[in-house]
Amino acid sequence: MTEHTNTLLGIFPRKIEELKRNGLYRSFVSFSHLAADQGHAVHDTDRIQVWCSNDYLGLSQHPEIIRAQLDSTVKHGTGSGGSRNIAGTSAAHVELERRLAAWHGKERALVFSSGYVANFETLSTVISAIPDIVVFSDAKNHRSLIEGILRTRCAKHIFPHNDLDDLERALAEHDHDRPKLIVFESIYSMDGDVSRVSAICDLADRYNALTFVDETHAVGSRGPTGAGVCEEAGETRPTFVQGVFSKAFGTVGGYVAGPDGALDYVRSHAPGFIFTTSLPHSSLDATIRSLELVQNGDALRRALADNVRYLKQALSAAGIGFLDADSHLVPVLVPGAERIRHVARVLLEEHGVYVTPINYPSVPKGAERFRITVPPFRTPEQIDDFVAALRKSLDS
After folding, report:
1. How far is residue 213's CA from residue 297's CA, in Å, rounded to a whole number?
2. For the chain, which domains are there?
């Protein structure tokens, strides 16, 4: 390399050192989950417990889903063979999209390689297609939503988190016939709080706006058949509903359900849908089986809710502060980047417990936290042991 390129590349080590000095450098703990021992993994040679997984219902290790993927792999192979428009649309894509659309009461659904891609590509494509549209976005929306909006350089208003008074004032400032889109989440992952979906839809009706709701953390865990907070509220008005398979479903991928014409347009124009290899048949067959289990998984959702209540009671009894939100996500605040890394290290090295420190930019500086999850397979004894280990580590 030339001296010039060495100088340019030298920027990156300096920036990494800056991250380390500011306590923002991210270290990754590698481990392998154990399907036969739910909630456990192997780290180096040690057996550890994982208490921060997004596998909310424990379905990634469900024997029926594993069998569905194995059988499909033997039959169809390990890859899809191409993008959706070049040999990559399988019968499983078609069937899964049909079922997802029906589940959410929408005309069409599109499957993407991830929830991030589903949000980014759908939003950026839809917004770009509508002249003079103005977007109203919750201040705590996920980065995938933010980037999808920013890419279009559209007019936008960021309203304070869940502040519907501010949202209404902003909507009222624009002509009734001007195109508008409200973008929000049903459950916000960092605080675990829930949006007022029906109230937002009321505003959308009043001010002639479209809506896009991200149900990433709600599908599987909320609603009579697990279709999310919208289903739980009996709400069918959101224009677009986004969800993922990589959390409560226990597989991989994401999707958006909505109007046929709009999603047909996204299918035909979104670069991240057109120019990427599609998910393999076997993964989608596993997801179809997972969807069936989720739709009939009320007992799983009740067990998850019971575990969340038990965990919160145990944390309170131990004097450990947490955000008591109305969801299955339990954020335990441990302010300070160095502090939370120390506590996480003690938990892992002395107690065999893994939780991920969540720090800036995922949350503001000084609001560092662990996000604890307690899937249905967790026992009261395991929860008690975890809380005791957390208490000791916080006191270390």
Report:
1. 23
2. 23-57+298-394 (3.90.1150.10), 63-295 (3.40.640.10)
Tell me the three state secondary structure of residue 123.
helix
State residue 381 phi and psi, 5-degree precision: -65, -40
3 has pLDDT over 90: no
Closest CA to 256 of 221, 292, 210: 210
* Backbone dihedral angles phi then psi of residue 153, each to the nearest 5 degrees: 55, 30
**Is 15 in the active site?**
no
What is the Cα–Cα distance from 208 to 202, expressed in whole angstroms? 10
The one-character DSSP state at 10 is T
Tens of pLDDT, residues 191-240: 999 999 999 999 999 999 999 999 999 999 999 999 999 999 999 999 99
- Active-site option among 106, 156, 180, 247: 247
Q: Which helix (H) or strand (E) holds 91?
A: helix 91-103
The DSSP annotation for 291-360 comes to: HHHHHT-HHHHHHHHHHHHHHHHHHHHTT------SSS-EEEE--SHHHHHHHHHHHHHHH-EE---B-T
Question: Residue 175 — very low, low, confident or very high, per pLDDT cuts 50/70/90?
Answer: very high
SS3 assignment, position 253: coil
* Helical (H) or strand (E) element with 182: strand 180-185
Distance of CA 255 to the CA centre of its chain: 12
The yes-or-no verdict on residue 24 having pLDDT over 90 is no
Strand partners, 353: 49
